[in-house]
């Protein structure tokens, strides 16, 4: 509670994080954010876009693999472990691994196969950097959503499916009219988890692109970090953090 209240106080000052004195600034930091700070607005827009894309596809793929791996297949235990493994690993480690894949691995594979698409500068332009971060995020989070969906599907009584089959329901009808409505609590959990995690993402883009090129892939968390700990604008950084907190609170 104390660090939070202290951050609120700091957000109304021009403190640099070093000096023993704090200069009261009132609402100037908040006014500056809304009127002058284009970097924060760009970071906010980027976070919204990456949140929509990663939340949507990580849930779609997670549900797809959950349905696939709840079938009676011998590969199920291995498949669940393989899909969950990326979520266990650190985002910083994954960022550096995928940075090597994007910059070295794809180009070498493109030379070998003769595919020009693999020769793209995946992290060198704003558009490709966005999709590079989205791709790695979806790959990392799909396993976690899959586990939640597997638990939801396994909690459904087999009698419900059997009754639907006796009524002549097709596979798609059983999924959309039986399975999906009954696992809506799992959908709620996964959507909330992916939205909050994507909106507060820091480690993966920090290691993958460092916010580049030209700060085009900078998230809100990275913008706060840069403002407070690189530029030593603790007051302005705390004001941004308060606005960030309000946004997360609204989502929650």
Structure characterization notes:
This protein has helices at residues 2-10, 28-35, 38-69, 76-88, 91-113, 126-154, 158-166, 171-182, 184-199, 203-208, 220-230, 234-251. It has 252 residues and is mainly alpha-helical. The protein is built from twelve helices and no strands. Helix 3 (38-69) crosses helix 11 (220-230). 74% of the residues lie in helices and 0% in strands.
Can I get a quick summary?
With 252 residues, the protein is mostly helical. It has helices at 2-10, 28-35, 38-69, 76-88, 91-113, 126-154, 158-166, 171-182, 184-199, 203-208, 220-230, 234-251. The chain contains 12 helices and no strands.
Record the SSE blueprint.
Elements: H1 2-10, H2 28-35, H3 38-69, H4 76-88, H5 91-113, H6 126-154, H7 158-166, H8 171-182, H9 184-199, H10 203-208, H11 220-230, H12 234-251
Helix pairs in contact: 3-6, 3-9, 3-11, 4-6, 6-9, 11-12
């Amino acid at each position: 509670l104390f660090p939070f209240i202290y951050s609120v106080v700091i957000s109304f000052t021009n403190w640099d994080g070093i000096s023993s004195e704090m200069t009261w600034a009132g609402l100037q930091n908040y006014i500056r954010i809304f009127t002058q700070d284009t970097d924060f607005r760009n970071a906010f827009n980027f976070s919204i876009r990456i949140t929509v894309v990663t939340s949507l596809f990580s849930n779609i793929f997670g549900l797809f693999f959950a349905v696939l791996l709840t079938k009676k297949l011998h590969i199920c235990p291995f498949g669940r472990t393989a899909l969950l493994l990326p979520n266990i690993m650190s985002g910083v480690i994954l960022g550096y691994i995928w940075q090597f894949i994007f910059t070295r691995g794809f180009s070498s594979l493109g030379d070998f196969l003769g595919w020009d698409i693999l020769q793209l500068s995946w992290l060198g332009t704003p558009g490709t950097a966005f999709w590079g971060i989205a791709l790695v995020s979806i790959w990392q989070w799909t396993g976690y959503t899959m586990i939640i969906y597997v638990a939801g599907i396994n909690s459904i009584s087999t009698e419900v499916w059997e009754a639907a089959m006796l009524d002549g329901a097709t596979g798609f009808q059983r999924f959309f009219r039986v399975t999906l409505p009954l696992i809506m609590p799992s959908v709620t959990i996964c959507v909330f988890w992916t939205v909050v995690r994507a909106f507060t993402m820091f480690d993966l883009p920090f290691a993958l692109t460092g916010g580049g090129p030209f700060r085009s892939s900078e998230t809100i968390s990275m913008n706060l970090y840069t403002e407070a700990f690189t530029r030593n604008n603790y007051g302005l950084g705390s004001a941004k953090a308060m606005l960030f907190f309000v946004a997360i609170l609204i989502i929650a």
